[in-house]
Amino acid sequence: MSIYIKKSDFDTIAAHAAAELPNEACGLIAGRLDGEDRFIEKVYLLSNPDRSPEHFSIDPKEQLSAIKDMRQNGFVPLGNFHSHPSTPARPSEEDIRLAHDPKASYLILSLSEKEPVLKAFRIADTKVTQDSIKFIL
């Protein structure tokens, strides 16, 4: 499976993550499915009420608002994203433990390198599968 994301959406996620430093940033992704492939059409930048560099949660009111917007625009919820301010772009033990939707894409943006690194995962019963990310115009 591949995740297709516009470079502008990647830049938006990276800017959101940088603005939230030293804490983790988070949000939702929505779009369309084409077979096994997922095309991100909209990124929802949400706040992290935990305000922590080591974990995040999503504000329920913001999540509901994003879901309503997805429905109004005919988008499918694809998953979520969050940043790792100082660790690599791979799921932490907590990320794996809290991943409850095996159909969701979990995007992690690491800010620990010179340039932001974005990776995508699916997590089912603690089994982690990495998906490829393809940038589109």
Automatic annotation (TrEMBL):
Keywords: Hydrolase, Metal-binding, Metalloprotease, Protease, Proteasome, Zinc. InterPro entries: JAB_dom_prok (IPR028090), JAMM/MPN+_dom (IPR000555), MPN (IPR037518), VirAsm_ModProt (IPR051929). One of its GO terms (cellular component) is proteasome complex. The keyword Transport does not apply. Pfam families: Prok-JAB (PF14464). Residues 3-137 form the MPN domain. CDD domains: MPN_like. The keyword Protease applies. One of its GO terms (molecular function) is zinc ion binding. GO terms for biological process: proteolysis. This is Proteasome lid subunit RPN8/RPN11.
